[in-house]
Design brief:
The complex is a heterodimer of chains A (432) and B (314).
Chain A: H1 2-23, E1 35-40, H2 50-56, E2 60-65, H3 71-83, E3 90-94, H4 98-102, H5 124-129, E4 131-132, E5 135-136, E6 139-151, H6 152-157, H7 167-178, E7 187-188, H8 193-203, E8 208-211, E9 214-217, H9 222-236, E10 240-241, H10 249-256, E11 262-266, H11 269-276, E12 284-288, E13 301-308, H12 316-327, H13 332-337, H14 345-348, H15 351-355, H16 366-375, H17 387-404, H18 409-426, E14 430-431
Parallel strand pairs in A: 1-2, 1-3, 7-10, 9-14
Antiparallel strand pairs in A: 3-13, 4-5, 6-11, 6-12, 6-13, 8-9
Helix pairs in contact in A: 1-3, 8-9, 17-18
Chain B: H1 2-12, H2 15-57, E1 60-63, E2 67-70, H3 74-80, H4 83-115, H5 122-130, H6 137-148, H7 154-162, H8 174-199, H9 203-211, H10 216-244, H11 248-256, H12 268-277, H13 282-313
Antiparallel strand pairs in B: 1-2
Classes of the chains: A alpha/beta (432), B mainly alpha (314).
């Protein structure tokens, strides 16, 4: 039985490769120099840009394929690259995955194709996300500036008139919300890594320093320790709901009934919150995330992705043409209309996005808040090239802490660091 | 000398056989080979080749920087020092030790009940107890996940009405819940094995027992249970192999319930999967798979030897 399972695993992998190979057979050029591009994307809005692009470039046909989200796509791409066939011309990457592909040379340097000219249209931090070393390996296609979604009604019930502007106020307000009793909490947390990193990011900590294949990990910088200690205090005093995980059914429920007073998350939640919490329509508002110093305006990032061209891709020039079209050129507006939140300064500053009121958020003008949150994202953040693996390792470590309450975030981060050092060095990086 | 030899042969065998036997034997062998060829080919293709390939893979280390390098037995030495792996092994070991006896006792009791001929609707029962075996593990995990879930499931309502705070998917209880799912799925299968054996017991034995004045319990103790012995060994081996490979349940549960305590190294199979696909350490995962296979075979073999010896001693 064991053997059968192995065989199944291998045949499944084989089948996957075959399927992927069939989906995107490389140079399929016909007589009149037709180029067929294959794009791997789990962002639905990319397909919206295809008709316009094909009309303007009759010799290029674009096929957008969903090869899985995030992790699944990376695995498929790794397999395709290893197999040497079925590699797409464009693939989608979360920002943290860009170094994973770029550093071992699996992604093309877009600078040679003219990407540098587009730099000024992107928010600084987004451009930083797609740059490894001093080369650009992807173009940003969507962005997640960290913002605070707060339930105005719940806060009001708790006696909080203004949304917390500093983390101190956030802490005080958390106590007031908790005083409402029952399931009322200011937020939930069951070990959300990206949230914790955004907190560290905003506080000035830069735990990962990457230079080529050298990675330095340090969770003892003052910015990092300040952020971690604050969140530890929130947990220790029982001010957070540690029973409800983001994205779960329970989460939707607690967002709906107003027992979770706030969410500090990427701006992308703007488009999905109305579906998750239809009953809370009119209750939520968006604000900048609380600050460490009153009067400061420092932001952080939570999510976002871009598209790059694999080094093994067949039609790099055509691929870049399309990439430019849907992330910067004529195709951008069709994606924005379809709900994409893009880090292009031209879009963020447009009067359209500045003046549009959002009915769900009580007729608030959400656009300017998100645009501002994007502009103030602090620079200099780096992800280690093995972050995808590191993420799952963190999940293992943190689940023990959140379920048993034994240990501390600091301890977990240290243990996480040790695991990353071990893994990274095994993988041929120099990690310390 | 050659002449003498030929004479010897003809002296022993009849002329007929000397002429035809050898080619016929060879032809028979060829026909036999032709008959097993389709099986043999498939066997080599789906059993032997993957194992050899896994063995080959396990000698390499795939690095993000530096690519694939031959590393000899480094993956194996690393594995023997890998605490995460041994935690997983000990987890499935304890799981097996608790779950398998419970499941088999249950299956045996059900088989005896069905065989007692005192039940109404025995056929219906037989099918319905066996049915869970036909439900794919993925589906059954989703189903149980919903039923045992604290927030939206059966246990949620139970906790609400009784005011309790039971959570079947807390880190301490998750394994028990998985044990329940597995028991639910495989009791029927084992019951069917036992039931088939009981069916094969000659009816005369029961008649003789009845004539000797044995009651139902004595029949069970003296006839039925001894008859089940050797099939019990088989059932234990199947179950050990099955539980050592637990994968679907811990793979799916974390996406359904928060903080179930399931980690990426929860069971050896899950660990191998995550090493290969999240850590891109295919060589290491292959080594793990082979070592785990060896452990499983060793345990199953030990059970078989012990079990069969006992069965024959009686």
């Amino acid at each position: 039985m064991r053997l059968r399972k192995k065989a199944r695993l291998f045949s499944a992998a084989l089948a996957l490769m075959l399927v992927l190979g069939a989906c995107s057979s490389g140079p399929a050029e016909s007589g009149n120099n037709q180029v067929k591009l294959t794009v791997w994307s789990w962002d639905d809005t990319v397909a919206k840009a295809v008709p316009g692009f094909e009309a303007a470039n009759p010799n290029i046909k674009v096929k957008v394929v969903n090869a899985g989200s995030s992790f699944d796509e990376y695995t498929a791409l790794d397999n395709a690259i290893q197999a040497g066939s079925g590699v797409p011309d464009l693939a989608m990457f979360e920002y943290f995955a860009v170094p994973y592909f770029a550093i071992p040379g699996k992604l093309d340097d877009l600078g040679k194709l003219g990407a540098e000219d587009l730099k000024k249209d992107y928010a600084k931090a987004a451009w930083n996300d797609v740059t490894v070393g001093d080369k650009v390996y992807a173009l940003p296609s969507d962005y997640g500036p960290s913002v605070m979604f707060y339930n105005k009604t719940t806060l009001k019930k708790a006696g909080v008139k203004k949304p917390p502007a500093t983390w101190n106020e956030y802490y005080e307000d958390a106590k007031k919300v908790r005083a409402l009793g029952g399931n009322h909490y200011i937020a939930q947390d069951t070990g959300d890594l990206f949230f914790l990193l955004s907190l560290i990011w905003q506080a000035g900590g830069r735990p990962f320093k990457v230079n080529g294949t050298k990675v330095h990990i340090d969770f003892t910088e003052p910015g990092t320790t300040k952020a971690v200690a604050f969140w530890q205090k929130m947990l220790d005093e029982g001010l957070l709901n540690t029973k409800v995980t983001a994205w779960s059914d329970d989460w939707n429920r607690t967002l709906n009934d107003g027992t979770l007073a706030s969410q500090i998350m990427g701006g992308w939640l703007t488009s999905s919150l109305p579906q998750r919490a239809p009953k809370a329509a009119g209750d939520f508002r968006v604000a900048l995330m609380p600050q460490w110093q009153r009067g400061d305006e420092v932001g952080a990032e939570n999510g976002g992705s871009g598209f790059g061209i694999p080094a093994a891709a067949g039609h790099k020039d055509a691929a870049f043409k399309f990439l430019e079209y849907f992330t910067h050129g004529g195709g951008l507006s069709s994606r924005v209309d379809a709900g994409a939140f893009v880090p292009n300064t031209s879009v963020l500053a447009s009067t359209d996005s500045q003046n549009k009121v959002n009915k769900y958020f009580g007729d608030q003008k959400v656009g300017p808040v998100l645009a501002h949150a994007t502009k103030i994202v602090a620079s200099g953040w780096q992800y280690p090239p093995f972050f995808e693996w590191a993420r799952s390792a963190y999940g293992d470590l943190v689940s023990k802490f959140y379920t048993t309450g034994k240990g501390s975030l600091t301890g977990i981060l240290e243990e996480w660091k040790q695991r990353m050092i071990k893994y990274g060095n095994e993988q041929g990086f120099e990690v310390d | 000398m050659g002449h003498a030899g030929r004479l010897d042969v003809t002296a022993v065998m009849s002329p007929d056989t000397t002429q035809h036997q050898a080619p016929a034997k060879r032809r028979g062998k060829q026909i036999g080979l032709a008959f097993i060829a389709p099986f043999g080919l498939l066997f080599i293709l789906v059993y032997i080749v993957p194992i050899v390939y896994a063995g080959y893979l396990s000698l390499f280390q795939e690095k993000l920087i530096g690519g694939n390098t031959f590393s000899g037995l480094a993956n194996y030495t690393k594995l023997f020092q890998d605490a995460q792996f041994w935690h997983g092994v000990s987890r499935v070991f304890w799981f097996t030790l608790v779950q398998v006896p419970i499941m088999l006792l249950l299956a045996m009791a059900l088989a005896l009940a069905l065989d007692s001929r005192r039940l109404h609707g025995a056929k219906f029962m037989r099918v319905s107890i066996f049915l869970p075996y036909a439900v794919p593990a993925v589906v059954s995990t989703l189903m149980w996940g919903f039923m045992l879930g604290v927030k939206y499931g059966l246990f949620g309502s139970l906790n609400n009405t009784l005011g309790t705070d039971l959570n079947p998917f807390a880190p301490g209880t998750t394994l028990i819940s998985i044990g329940m799912m597995v028991t639910w799925a495989f009791t029927g299968f084992n019951m069917l094995i036992f039931y088939a054996v009981l069916k094969a017991v000659p009816r005369e034995l029961y008649e003789a027992a009845a004539l000797d004045g044995a009651n139902e319990f004595q029949v069970v103790r003296r006839i039925k249970l001894p008859a089940l012995r050797s099939s019990l060994v088989i059932a234990i081996i199947f179950s050990i192999i099955g539980t050592f490979q637990i994968f679907s349940e811990p793979q799916i549960l974390p996406s359904m319930v928060a903080n179930s305590g399931i980690t990426t190294d929860y069971t050896p199979n899950l660990y191998a999967y995550n090493l290969a696909f999240a850590g891109s350490q295919q060589g290491y995962a292959a080594a793990l798979a082979l070592v785990m296979a060896a452990i499983t075979i060793a345990v199953a073999y030990a059970v078989q030897i012990r079990g069969l010896r006992n069965a024959f001693e009686d």
